[in-house]
Design brief:
The complex is a heterodimer of chains A (189) and B (376). Chain A has helices at 4-7, 12-22, 25-34, 36-47, 50-67, 76-95, 103-106, 111-117, 124-135, 139-150, 155-162, 166-187. Chain A has 189 residues and is an all-alpha fold. Chain A is elongated and about 60 Å long. In chain B, strand 2 (207-210) and strand 3 (216-218) form a beta hairpin. Residues 108-147, 168-187 and 273-288 of chain B have low confidence and may be disordered. Chains A and B meet through helix 3, helix 4, helix 5, helix 6 and helix 7 of A and helix 2, helix 3 and helix 4 of B.
């Protein structure tokens, strides 16, 4: 009631604490709602159906409401990601469906190359190495990386510009980043 | 909210690029975006609907709990009242009334807060205990004797309450305990365990499977798993970001405790394991990290090298003894590529080493860089 205005200002961890302390479901409801777009999206990825994804998100809420206070959660965001993935995978198991996991997205590249490419680094040696290594990349990888990081073009833009398919653009960028990482490491102390 | 346009399908321009770059660092966002890419229409309305549903559900539950805990208190206390009322039926009527009065008073003093059901019972009992012995009854007691008897009964009542309190605490503990206690009654052909990290924190979503089979599962919110055991063998535990664990399975242990250590270097490496398509259960939950191996095995490969090695014939190289250090990767066909000389010996020897690897037997696919030495 009078809490409603303040609730939205609380951090994730504060909301959790309040929920643990008072048991009032509004706190957890507020917290969960913050993540609905992400949770729903992940369920869409695994279940590939809007209705099923919606049910899954609601079902997860039902499951967590009584249980969440019992867990020691350091960072809610990371935790809930793990939990929703687990939840969707279990649903898939029950349905006995082929689980097609697209690994190209599961690779989280190391941050240091990203920093370099995003021009967030000041190290001159590495910047030089980057220039040098970019030259040595295969053409498709080099083009895609330059478009994406330097020209700030989105995947869809690059598709239009180069004629490569969307999945190719993504994998060129992926492989290009990895090759750059290897090359740069060789050329710096 | 800023993702709204991207989700809608507007994926061009700098804003889209920014979101895509953010997704590179954020696996949660990346997966969600992947989900939206698969469904053609705009999901915004659905998201709003889900949010409304959550709010409604939260309100309903609060209301329910509030009422249920009040009802629970009421029933509990009436139960006690009734117990004493019926077990002490030789007492004069006044005493019985006195007891009822006392119990009613206590009941009124119960704070009716919205609490979860499990905790509600225990907490309310604790509150009672905290209170000093119930205040003296306001009803005037006819005789002194009756009063003493009433007081005795109150003490008895308190003791009994204490006993019941303990029982309730125990029941609550059992209910709140993890699945451990429930599972311990299952037949012993089950392998059960919990997976932790270095700090003792349970690991969720780790993939646990029986070595050499496709039989597996993933750990739940408590880090717990159970698997049907065939006979003793090894189980593999994998979780991205952690060093894979292979441990011998033991169905006789009531609860295996498996610790996983963080693997800082492995996050950007990926594996396409083995010969062809993976069974689905192996793919759920984690990615295995594998160092490529020669298909025929290391020993046989070394033997091949020795057998086929052509010694350099030029002046510089022919007398040289030593090793050439090479690095290379294995492609999806099991063939080496990007062969580089890491540690040269002399030119002809280096080239010979490269030739041997290039023309040599196949490798089991893996994504890690291979380091190999060829001895001259």
């Amino acid at each position: 009631m009078f809490l409603k205005r303040k609730i939205s200002k609380l951090t994730d961890e504060e909301l959790l604490r309040q929920y643990k302390r008072s048991g009032q479901s509004e706190y957890f409801g507020e917290l969960y709602n913050r993540y609905i777009p992400l949770l729903y999206g992940v369920c869409l990825k695994y279940l590939q159906d809007a209705d099923k994804a919606q049910d899954a998100v609601m079902q997860l809420f039902e499951n967590l409401l009584p249980k969440v206070s019992n867990y020691e959660i350091e960072t809610f965001r990371t935790w809930i990601h793990s939990v929703v993935k687990n939840h969707c995978l279990q649903i898939l198991r029950k349905e006995n469906r082929e689980i097609v996991v697209d690994f190209s997205v599961n690779i989280m590249e190391s941050d240091d190359v990203l920093h370099l490419l995003n021009d967030e680094e000041d190290n001159d040696e590495r910047k030089e190495a980057l220039k040098h290594c970019l030259e040595r990349l295969p053409e498709a990888q080099r083009t895609s990386i330059i478009h994406f990081f330097m020209d700030e073009m989105s995947y869809a833009d690059i598709v239009d510009h180069t004629g490569y398919s969307l999945s190719h653009v993504k994998s060129y960028i992926q492989n290009g980043k990895r090759n750059l990482k290897i090359c740069i490491e060789k050329h710096t102390v | 909210m800023k993702y709204r346009r991207y989700i809608k399908g507007s994926r061009k321009g700098k804003e889209a690029n920014r979101i895509e770059r953010e997704a590179m660092k954020d696996p949660f966002l990346a997966e969600a975006l992947e989900g939206y890419e698969r469904i053609p229409n705009d999901q915004q309305k659905r998201i709003t609907d889900i949010r409304k549903q959550v709010v409604r559900r939260a309100q309903r539950r609060n209301y329910l709990i509030r009422n249920l805990s009040a009802v629970a208190c009421l029933l509990m206390l009436l139960g006690f009242g009734g117990y004493f009322f019926f077990s002490q039926n030789e007492l004069p009527q006044e005493i019985a009334t006195v007891q009822q009065e006392i119990l009613h008073e206590e009941e009124q003093q119960q704070p009716v807060e919205p609490l979860k059901i499990e905790k509600a019972i225990a907490l309310n009992q604790k509150e009672e205990k905290k209170e000093t012995p119930p205040p003296p009854p306001p009803v005037p007691v006819p005789s002194q004797k009756a009063l003493t008897i009433a007081e005795d009964n109150i003490t008895v009542a308190e003791e009994d309450m204490a006993v019941v309190e303990m029982e309730i605490a125990m029941i609550e503990k059992d209910a709140m305990d993890s699945i451990d206690s429930a599972i311990s009654d299952t037949p012993s052909t089950m392998i059960k365990g919990k997976v932790f990290d270095d700090n003792g924190k349970p690991l969720i979503g780790a993939s646990v499977y029986i070595d050499g089979t496709s039989r597996g599962t993933i750990t739940n919110l408590d880090g717990f798993f159970k698997l049907e055991a065939l006979d003793t063998g090894n189980i593999n535990v994998n979780l991205i970001g952690y060093k894979p664990v292979k441990i011998s399975a033991d169905a006789t242990t009531p609860m295996m405790h498996i610790a996983m250590h963080k693997d800082e270097t492995s996050l950007d490496e990926v594996t396409v394991v083995g010969y062809g398509r993976q069974k689905k259960s192996l793919m759920t939950g984690s990615i295995q990290i594998v160092m490529p191996q020669p298909v025929i095995g290391k020993k046989a490969y070394d033997a091949y090298i020795e057998k086929n090695l052509i010694r350099p014939t030029d002046e510089i190289c022919k007398k040289k003894r030593g090793t050439v250090g090479l690095t290379f990767y294995i492609n999806t066909e099991g063939r080496p590529y990007q062969i580089k000389v890491e540690k040269p010996l002399c030119e002809q020897a280096d080239n010979e080493a490269i030739r041997l690897i290039e023309e040599g037997p196949d490798w089991i696919i893996g994504d890690k860089e291979v380091k190999w030495e060829v001895r001259f």
